[in-house]
């Protein structure tokens, strides 16, 4: 019984760490968030904090995975793929409110191209999933007569993901770039 209680407490503490880390990184950014600050915020030593994740990179990968799960639940309902265009626009609009998480995402996505990086599997799988979701949605919208039939769904999905990532990088350099407006414009072009 003690073991089960200890396990539950460990899960709860890990969740607390992720929630606190999401808030802190969103507010101050990846570059200004230290393991010490996160540990202090949840009442642990740095070693105690990393006990739950293994390394700083694994901690920040878990933060990104949590962010993705929260965003999917809030903006990309899996049972209504035709809603994806509006959901992606809302998601990108939301991203403009959490610049620290956008910074973390763009930095880690570039660093994780190395197969040995702890975030490599996360990004590889994430890119596959979002491309598949976009391709399926484009196909459904085409069958419903809402998008042009001459668009190749798989090729469009690759281009759309490149656009999403590129918009975020441009926005980090110039916050005047309205990411959501540009994405909405793309969907409007396709609907013509």
TrEMBL record:
Residues 34-53 bind DNA. PROSITE patterns: HTH_TETR_2. It comes from the Bacteria. Coiled coil: none annotated. Keywords: DNA-binding, Repressor, Transcription, Transcription regulation. The keyword Hydrolase does not apply. The keyword DNA-binding applies. It holds the Pfam family TetR_N. Residues 11-71 form the HTH tetR-type domain. This is TetR/AcrR family transcriptional regulator.
